[in-house]
Each structure stands twice: as structure tokens, then as C-alpha cells.
């Protein structure tokens, strides 16, 4: 879908690589291998991305390395777009009808930025009536692909609304963390409901 919004498929693939690996820098030839494109096309797109400040470059010996600029004003927005096109976010969006009736599906931006999960972190939060075995299978498959643990939490709408009304600390933490909405409306997700 992003390649229909953005003109260059090479640029989209470079953005996916760099956005989903924000702590890594890549030499041009490594990017060529990852995105499967001609070296001149990759160089041209990297130059375009560097020109707008979305990608930074640094020289080490005779090599130039490129990395996403996490301080760029569009970084979080582009990361949210890519999250729906790749990884666990894409899997949730594409397989939503098999998972069940999802009111909200939220993915932590900190997780997307490469944070290692702890027991207190919620990387994926889903509200709805879902088939937990299907979700577990999707999460396990993504964990195997990436080698990263994905902490997730699921609850139905009644429990979510009740816990929101009572200012539950867990729900407060989920509502206040930086996130991308995979499914549902962010404003309704955060709205305070009076009892």
C-alpha cells in the first residue's frame, strides 16, 4: 500500500528497513542487499532522503553509513505507516477477521523503535472479542521471524471501559504511552467515560 502512496518502491523499501531498525546504520551495499534494488537507485533514493533530513549519513574510513533520523518531524508518522505494512502490525491488520471482533488494536511506538520489552511493557494491546489461540499463533510467528519478544494484553470492551472508569494504573499506562493505532479511533480509545 505504501508503494501506491509513495512514488518509488525502492524508497519505500529503504524506509521500511531504516524505520524498523532505528538504532542501526547501513552501508549502501547492505541496503542494496536488503531491499533487492540496483545500487544506483538506492544511492539516488538515499540522497533524496538525506536532502530532506529524514536520513543521516556518516563516513567511517572509506565507507558511508546511513541511518534514520529519529528527530525528524515525520519520523513517528512514517513509523506508524510502516508498522501497518510490516511486522506484527501488518499481521494484525491483515488477519483481523480471523482474530475476531477487534475494537482497538494498539502497538507501542517504543517497541517499534527497538526497545527491549520488560514484564511491565505492553507492546501490543487489543480490545475486543477475539480468538486468543489465533492471536497467540500470529504473535509467535512474528517473534520467530524477528527474534524479539512481543508482550501483549487483551481484554473485552466491558473490562476496558470499567478499568478506564476506575483509573486503573495498567490502563492509564497503556493510554499514555506513545502508540500507533492499528485498528480503531485514537480519540475514542483515549476518551474518558463518566460512570
TrEMBL record:
Residues in HTH arsR-type domain copies: 4-87
TM region(s), chain numbering: none
InterPro entries: HTH_ArsR_DNA-bd_dom, WH-like_DNA-bd_sf, WH_DNA-bd_sf
Molecular function terms from GO: DNA-binding transcription factor activity
Domain of life: Bacteria
Name under which the protein is recorded: HTH arsR-type domain-containing protein
Amino acid at each position: 500500500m505504501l508503494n501506491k502512496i509513495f512514488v518509488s518502491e525502492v524508497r519505500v523499501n529503504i524506509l521500511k528497513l531504516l524505520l524498523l531498525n532505528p538504532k542501526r546504520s547501513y552501508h549502501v551495499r547492505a541496503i542494496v542487499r536488503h531491499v533487492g534494488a540496483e545500487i544506483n537507485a538506492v544511492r539516488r533514493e538515499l540522497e533524496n532522503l538525506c536532502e530532506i533530513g529524514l536520513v543521516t549519513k556518516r563516513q567511517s574510513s572509506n565507507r558511508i553509513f546511513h541511518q534514520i533520523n529519529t528527530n525528524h518531524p515525520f519520523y513517528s508518522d512514517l513509523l506508524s505507516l510502516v508498522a501497518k505494512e510490516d511486522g506484527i502490525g501488518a499481521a494484525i491488520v491483515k488477519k483481523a477477521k480471523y482474530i475476531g471482533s477487534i475494537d482497538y488494536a494498539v502497538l507501542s511506538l517504543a517497541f517499534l523503535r527497538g526497545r527491549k520489552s520488560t514484564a511491565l511493557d505492553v507492546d501490543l494491546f487489543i480490545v475486543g472479542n477475539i480468538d486468543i489461540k489465533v492471536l497467540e499463533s500470529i504473535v509467535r510467528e512474528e517473534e520467530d521471524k524477528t527474534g524479539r519478544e512481543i508482550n501483549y494484553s487483551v481484554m473485552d470492551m466491558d473490562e476496558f471501559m470499567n478499568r478506564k472508569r476506575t483509573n486503573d494504573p495498567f490502563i492509564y499506562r497503556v493510554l499514555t504511552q506513545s502508540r500507533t493505532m492499528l485498528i480503531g479511533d485514537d480519540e475514542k480509545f483515549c476518551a474518558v467515560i463518566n460512570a
